[in-house]
Design a protein that fits this description.
Number of strands: 8
Structural class: alpha/beta
Strand order of the largest sheet: 4-3-2-5-6
Helix content: 25-40%
CATH class: Alpha Beta
Strand content: 25-35%
CATH architecture: 2-Layer Sandwich
CATH topology: Nucleotidyltransferase, domain 5
Number of helices: 7
CATH superfamily: ATPase, nucleotide binding domain
Length: 191
């Protein structure tokens, strides 16, 4: 379990970076795409967020609207990628097959919706598996998806960003739990 206090930004890799010990597979220009300026450019943008966790593969595809985003596609599948990792230290072949099958569906959805800004992350199972690099390469080869293996700190930071609008600043500080299939992060948020 990881406890993180957020009074300032949580350190960790950002888009286009990868956790220590893992190779970077995403081209820098894809990770740092600059928005095109001009009338209506925001309305034409399509964003996707993909989270390959220890247990689940989740995808959201959204368009910006006034005051937020409108989800235009979503996907969630239990893949059990981390099955057996604690005992063996490696991702099992059948678990990788399940994950890649789900990721192929995600890739098709992102392409069909023309997602121009994409963030695809992998968490605990990939952080601890000794064969993670080979799996990440295989995912890229078979699906075109460039997964970033993020640290627990970055996972916690993203969890807080995802629920930030739900926190009531008049109540005071908050404790946010991110309970995943292979790790739990506790984040103390100072308001």
């Amino acid at each position: 379990m990881n406890a993180i206090s957020l009074g300032a930004p949580v350190p960790g890799p950002r888009a286009g970076q990868v956790a220590a010990g893992h190779r970077h597979t995403q081209p820098p220009d894809q990770a740092r795409e600059r928005p095109r300026v001009g009338p209506g450019w925001m309305r034409r943008r399509v964003y996707s967020a993909l989270d390959l966790g220890t247990n689940n593969c989740r995808l959201l595809v959204a368009k910006p609207v006034r005051g937020g985003f409108r989800v235009i596609d979503a996907f969630s599948r239990i893949v059990r990628l981390g099955q057996g990792v604690a005992a063996s230290g490696t991702l099992a072949e059948d678990a990788m097959e399940r994950a890649i099958a789900a990721l192929k569906i995600c890739a098709e959805k992102m392409d069909r919706r023309r997602a121009t800004l994409r963030r695809s992350v992998a968490t605990q199972a990939c952080r601890v598996a000794s064969n993670c690099g080979a799996f990440i390469d295989r995912v890229r080869s078979e699906t075109g998806i460039a997964l970033d293996v993020i640290t627990a700190e970055e996972e916690a930071r993203l969890a807080v960003l995802g629920c930030q609008s739900l926190l009531d600043p008049t109540v005071g500080d908050a404790l946010v739990f991110d309970i995943g299939g292979g790790s739990t992060e506790l984040i103390w948020v100072k308001t």
